[in-house]
Each structure stands twice: as structure tokens, then as C-alpha cells.
Amino acid sequence: MLKVSSILIGVSDLNKARPFFENVFGMKFDEFRPPFASATLGDIEFNIEENASYRSPDWSKLYIGGRKQVSFQSDDLDSFLKQASSFGAKIMKEAEMKPWGWKEAIIADPDGNEFIIEQEV
Asked: Domain limits of the chain?
């Protein structure tokens, strides 16, 4: 049987990224040893990592910035977006209804990592 072990998010500076992930997403950091950190949201583990000398030369291009392949669900998307903005999230795409009956927005962290935030309507 397989299960998701963790989701990787690349950042340029863990010390600067930590407050964003704690305040915006409510993640709890279990381990924090730059260039590596481990945080949880519910029972999902996120590895939030910096580039390091042992990584491949193009690691930062692949893992820092751009749309991440993970979506987050909120019970109140509009309130979430206001709160996220107050903690430094950039609203990349305002909330809009999707044909499948969900409202969806896109935010970015200070490193340009983009996340889909959605609400079932």
C-alpha cells in the first residue's frame, strides 16, 4: 500500500519562509534545521527546503517559484484571502467560480511559489 510521504516546497530562506507557512497555512513545524524543515498540516507532511551545495545545479529553478501541484481547501475563501494578504501572500488570481461548483483563487508566497486555494460552494 502506498501513501503520500511528504510534499516538497522550495524556498530561498527558511527563516523568512517559516512565518508565512505558519501564519497563512497554519502549518506546525516539527523540525527546523536549515536547509531543511518539516511541517505538518493535519496529517500531511511538508518538507520546506532551501537550495544547498549538495543539490543538483538546477534545483532552485525546479523547486523554488511557480505553481505547486497541491491545492488547499478553505471553508471561507474570501476571509482566508484577506488574512493571507495581511501575512504577505500575493493574490495572483482573485476568487472565481469554477464549472465544477467550487470557488478558487491562487496565492503566492514571497518566493513566488503559487498555491491554489479552493472552497466547495
From this structure: 7-120
Length of the chain: 121
Residue type at position 112: G
**pLDDT tens for residues 44-83?**
999 999 999 999 999 999 999 999 989 999 999 999 999 9
Q: Which CATH architecture has domain 7-120?
A: Roll (3.10)
pTM over 0.85: yes
DSSP string, 1-64: ------EEEE-S-HHHHHHHHHHHH--EEEEEETTEEEEEETTEEEEEE---TTS-TTHHHHHS
Tell me phi and psi for residue 98, to 5 degrees. -110, 155
Residue from 88, 98, 91, 94 nearest 114 by CA: 91
Cβ pair 56, 63 in contact under 8 A: no
